[in-house]
Amino acid sequence: MTRVLSGVLGLAAMLAAPAFAHHSAVMFDDQKEVTVTGTVKEFQYTNPHSWLLVDVKDDKGNVTTWGFEAEGPSTLTRAGIRRSDFAPGTAITITGNPMKDGRPAAAWVRATRGDGKQFDPRAGFAIK
Amino acid sequence: MTLRTLAALALTALSLTATAQTAPSAEKQRMIDLGIEHGTARALYDHFKQEARGGQALTWRTVPDWTGIWTREASPLFWDPDQTSPTALPTAKLTPEHQRLLKDKLDKVAKGIEFDPLSNCEPAGMPRWLVEPFLKEFIVTPQQVYLVNEMQNEMRRVYTDGRDHPSAADAYPLWEGDSIGFWNGDKLIIHTSQMRAGQYQRIQPFYTEQVETVEIWQKTDPTTMVVDVWSFDPPALAEPWYTRQVYKQLSNDDKTLRIRYWNCGENQNNTVEKTATGTSDFSNFTFTQEDDK
Predict the structure, then answer these.
(1) I want to staple B179 with a disulfide (CB 3.0 to 4.6 A). Which of A94, B107, B158, B189 is the partner?
(2) Would the CB atoms of A49 and B259 count as touching at under 8 Å?
(3) Residues in a beta bridge with A43
(4) Which of B2, B259, B266 has the CB atom closest to A25's CB atom?
(5) Ramachandran category for residue A7: left, alpha or beta (phi over 0 → left; psi -120 to 50 → alpha)
(6) Are B133 and B151 in contact (CB under 8 A)?
(7) SS3 B206
(8) Which helix (H) or strand (E) holds B72?
(9) With an 8 Å Cβ cutoff, are B151 and A41 in contact?
(10) For the segment A46-98, what is each residue's pLDDT rounded down to a tens digit?
(11) What is the DSSP code string of A32-83?
């Protein structure tokens, strides 16, 4: 299931927003959000960015793999997100800022696992 | 909000220079004046060394405890932590040529044209090293200090054994430059030269190969490292650019946080290309069915 929402981030949110490790975020549309529900295909826990790959089935049963980009393992660790949190097959609803060119990828904003646990990868920039 | 929006806001500020910056504090002005008074990084460094009567050598018994995992406190978007608003311009006093270069960059970013050389897996290099986000470690030994940034495995070496820089004839541009330093009590004073040209950050000014820095590092409490930094760069800066950088020690009671080696190219999905228009885009993803470009 896929849905797209529009929204504008406030100044405070901007100032707290992460800088992407090694590339501009210009390929993502931060005025939009896309939310998909599916199952985890693979969690690529890599530097400089991690990718959470999610298989999403449409009404006809066709499967599209979406990729959600986040920061690397140390920032995810600070956000309390471990590699073991997303084993293949895990049910998930995940939201991100989608690619402008329509490819099935997004900058990961938040996620809710099938058991209800919520994950905010950008919390990894908080100093504590 | 993307850097594109930030750049547009900064360009607005460029046309409203009267409101672009707030006056520095008296303490900051004193530090700015110190840089102006001495004129060059070397002269400022020598001034501090003279004040310290040459500095004091450390032993293994007297090395300060700078252990732990650290990260920069301020927004990674701005070089000067005092620039907290995207509607303000950087606090640097730029030469006309570098004002133009900054405006050109902000113009492009406002149009969605942006490419960071880090996308090619290049190191940030000094002085940008100071404001890169993510994890840092500061390792003190009696004769060298190692300043480590997790990103791109960047490690600065600061020689505190009394050696000088290589001669000008033998100097060549280095990612982290060549750093020498001395101790004045619990303060580490560093002079860095031989750096490569680069940018202070994505929507910040550029620096040239002539840039040199002086830093004073001091751990002011168990979780705070304060670094006073002067950048000298005559082609880019009309006067030395003084800023205060602050790093905070992260809690790591369970020892989970560790600095790991990076290979920037280890995941194809992180490959970012410079497009024909000069902006950034991902290459082909591994998770799509075919060539998706």
Answers:
(1) B158
(2) no
(3) A52
(4) B2
(5) beta
(6) yes
(7) strand
(8) strand B70-72
(9) no
(10) 999 999 999 999 999 999 999 999 999 999 999 999 999 999 999 999 999 99
(11) EEEEEEEEEEEEE--SSEEEEEEEEE-TTS-EEEEEEEEE-HHHHHHTT--G
**Domain tally, chain B:** 1
B17-to-A16, B22, B65, B88, B212 alpha-carbon distances in Å: 25, 10, 44, 9, 27
**How many whole angstroms separate alpha carbon B161 and alpha carbon A62?**
66
Chain A residues touching B151 at Cβ < 8 A: 21-22, 48
Q: Which domain holds residue B136?
A: 3-17+25-253
Backbone angles phi, psi at B86, to 5 degrees: -70, -10
Instruction: Please give the pLDDT value at position B171.
Output: 96
Question: Quick check: B3 and A125 CB within 8 A?
Answer: no
Residue B172 tokens read as 């060549």
Provide the CA B250 distance to its chain's centre, in angstroms: 20
Q: Report yes or no on B215 lying in a domain.
A: yes
Cis peptide before A48, with omega less than 30 degrees from 0?
A: yes
What interface predicted TM-score (ipTM) does this complex get? 0.89
* Spatial distance between the Cα atoms of B272 and A13, rounded to a whole number of angstroms: 26
Q: What share of chain A is helix, strand, coil (3-state, %, to 5)?
A: 15, 45, 40
Nearest-5° angle of CA B76, CA B78, CA B79? 100
Look up the domain containing A101 and give its range: 2-125
Number of domains in chain A: 1
- Packing angle of the helix pair B3-14, B96-110 (nearest 10 deg): 140
Residue type present at position A32: K
Q: pLDDT per residue over A8-20, tens digit each?
A: 333 333 444 444 6
Helix (H) / strand (E) element for A111: namely strand A105-113
- Residue B10: its pLDDT value, please? 60
Which residues of chain B make contact with A99, given a CB cutoff of 8 A? 282
CATH code of the domain in which B165 resides: 2.40.128.20
- B39 is a domain residue: yes
Q: Beta strand pairing status for A63-71 and B154-159?
A: unpaired
Tell if the CB–CB gap between A51 and B269 is shorter than 8 Å.
yes
Give the sign of the dihedral formed by CA B104, CA B108, CA B113, CA B119.
Answer: positive
Name residue B139's beta-bridge partners: B146
B132 close to B151: Cβ distance less than 8 angstroms = yes
Sign of the CA dihedral A87, A90, A93, A97? positive
